[in-house]
From TrEMBL:
This is Glycerophosphodiester phosphodiesterase. Signal peptide: none annotated. Residues 2-234 form the GP-PDE domain. It comes from the Bacteria. PROSITE patterns: GP_PDE. The lineage of its organism: Bacteria, Bacillati, Bacillota, Bacilli, Bacillales. It comes from Macrococcus armenti. Pfam families: GDPD.
Length: 240
């Protein structure tokens, strides 16, 4: 059965990558989360999409140039102006939810390769949840580095355009799955992907007709902002 991953938490209704969005995703039945990570100046892994706090908080500054104590004094924004009473979370806080509710977690590395992978691995090893963690990135160097550190974790290469033979990355680099933009892959393509034993999770699927199509396909997972909509359609599929 296709799994539902809450994109940056339940981000259709709650501020992206906030603890509120992750907790609401749990409440509404997501199988797991997708989130983004960066490394602070003092080597803390924070959950934030951009390399700065400008867009998503009421503060300003580059994540890599700030300590976590500096970042956490600011609050996450909901929309352009409204602010909620939550700081940018640490990855560790989300990992605790994943552990407590037996969920899956897709960690997208946004930072440049070279340092964050070692810090990430050290943190993940405290949880012993290898089978529930997926590490993804658009940058294959991040994934190659993770594979060299510990090949027990599933790595997933993100694509924002059509790729004729993504299984080549499995053969050459041991990449274990792919996360293509749903706009650039067709259901028919899944046959070849299955033949090459390459699990596929599509992003970011929000419209009801698109969600229904992918839920009725053989994709391993759907990454969506619309958690309730996706979960309801999955429940219908289970009853059929």
């Amino acid at each position: 059965m296709t799994l539902i991953f809450a994109h940056r938490g339940y981000s259709a209704k709650y501020p992206e990558n906030s603890m509120l969005a992750f907790k609401q995703a749990v409440i509404h039945g997501a199988d797991g989360f997708e989130l983004d990570i960066h490394l602070t100046k003092d080597n803390q892994i924070v959950v934030i999409h951009d390399d700065s706090i400008n867009r998503t908080t009421n503060g300003r500054g580059k994540v890599q140039h700030m300590t976590y104590d500096e970042i956490k004094q600011y609050r996450i924004k909901s929309g352009l102006f409204k602010v909620i009473d939550e700081p940018v979370p640490l990855l560790e806080e989300v990992l605790n939810i994943v552990r407590d509710y037996n969920l899956l977690l897709n960690i997208e590395i946004k930072a440049e390769s070279g340092k964050i992978e070692l810090v990430l691995h050290e943190l993940l090893e405290k949880y012993s949840m290898n089978d529930r963690i997926i590490i993804s990135s658009f940058n294959i160097e991040n994934l190659i580095m993770m594979e060299s550190i510990d090949s027990d974790y599933e790595t997933a290469l993100l694509f924002d355009k059509y790729h004729k033979s993504p299984w080549d990355f499995k053969t050459k680099n041991n990449i274990k799955s792919i996360h293509p933009n749903a706009k650039h892959i067709k259901v028919d393509h899944l046959i070849e992907l299955h033949e090459h034993e390459l699990p596929t999770r599509v992003y970011t699927v929000n419209k009801e007709k698109d969600l229904a199509m992918w839920i009725n396909s053989s994709v391993a997972g759907i990454i969506t902002d619309e958690v309730e909509r996706a979960v309801k359609l999955k429940q219908v599929k289970k009853r059929d």
